[in-house]
Design a protein that fits this description.
Oligomer: single chain
Structural class: alpha+beta
Distance between the termini: 27 Å
Strand order of the largest sheet: 1-11-10-4
Number of helices: 11
Strand content: 15-25%
Shape: flat
Number of strands: 11
């Protein structure tokens, strides 16, 4: 019997949550000149996350800042930009948004629900991805990449699996546009309608399992451990940077084993990766 088991799926925010805080700052890579931008972004995050100074000390700091110059409402230029930042204890949601803004990690985009990951944010993601990819490869998994588009029939076979996010799927119905009759824009070409609608990848289980069925001929092909770094689309109505957006980066791992015991052992191993 072959047991296929999904072993790991980490979005960008949960990947950050899974790594110990020290793993982000103590490594020599972040301290090296080669990764100076990443280190700078990280220092910005840590500074933003620090509790606000007591009122008495804050007053003293403001006076010293005033003596050095600066001026303006902030009392001293960019360095005072974090003054009065909400603490996690007071309002976690507000603190989270303020940290992201102060560290200059993302920006809004013309597409509702989607974010632009700026260089500071991408530098942090690159570090997280590099670290996790190394750990995942050590378990014997190999990286692969699967199509962004998935036939709707694939998801129909796994109706129970996709029930939780079926209403969030983006659907492609045409493969070509044409100019409107007025010539002032474009519209889907009726003659370019797809025979079968395609779902923009919300997750890759159905596609990966389909390929596993082609690749696994006997027990000699087991275990099969595949990891994918990709972007996925889930049309969320309520979004929040890094935690949930219409499009986000993540990785997902899928394995096939000769027995349930091996699959379970692998899944438990990945929990500690």
């Amino acid at each position: 019997a072959i047991v296929t088991k999904r072993i790991l799926a980490i979005g960008s925010a949960s990947a950050i949550a899974r790594l110990p805080a020290c793993a982000l700052c103590r490594g020599s890579a972040l301290a090296s000149a080669r990764h100076a931008p990443q280190a700078s972004a990280l220092r910005g995050l840590r500074a933003c996350a620090a509790p606000a100074a007591p009122a008495e000390k804050q007053g003293e700091q403001d006076q010293k800042q005033g003596k050095r110059g600066g001026g303006g409402k902030a009392g001293g230029g960019k360095r005072s930009g974090h003054k009065g930042m909400t603490t996690r204890e007071d309002d976690y949601s507000a603190w989270y948004q303020e940290v992201i803004a102060a560290a200059d990690l993302v920006d809004g985009s013309p597409v509702k629900g989607c974010m632009v990951i700026k260089p500071n944010g991408m530098a942090l993601w690159d570090e997280l991805r590099a670290e996790l990819d190394t750990r995942i490869r050590r378990t014997g998994a190999q990286n692969a990449y699967f199509p962004l588009f998935i036939p709707v029939s694939f998801l129909s076979k796994e109706a129970e699996h996709v029930e939780g996010f079926a209403k969030e799927c983006a659907v492609v119905t045409h493969h070509r546009l044409r100019a409107t009759a007025e010539g002032k824009g474009v519209e889907p070409d009726p003659e370019a309608k797809l025979e079968e609608p395609l779902i923009v990848r919300p997750t890759s289980e159905t596609m990966i399992w389909h390929m596993f069925g082609k690749w696994i001929m006997s027990y000699r092909d087991l275990p099969l451990k595949i990891n994918q770094w990709a972007n996925v689309v889930r049309w969320e109505l309520r979004t929040r940077a890094f935690l949930r957006s219409a499009e986000f980066l993540w990785q997902e791992g899928h394995t096939a084993h000769a027995s349930e015991a091996e699959a379970d052992a692998c899944a438990r191993q990945m929990l500690d990766v």
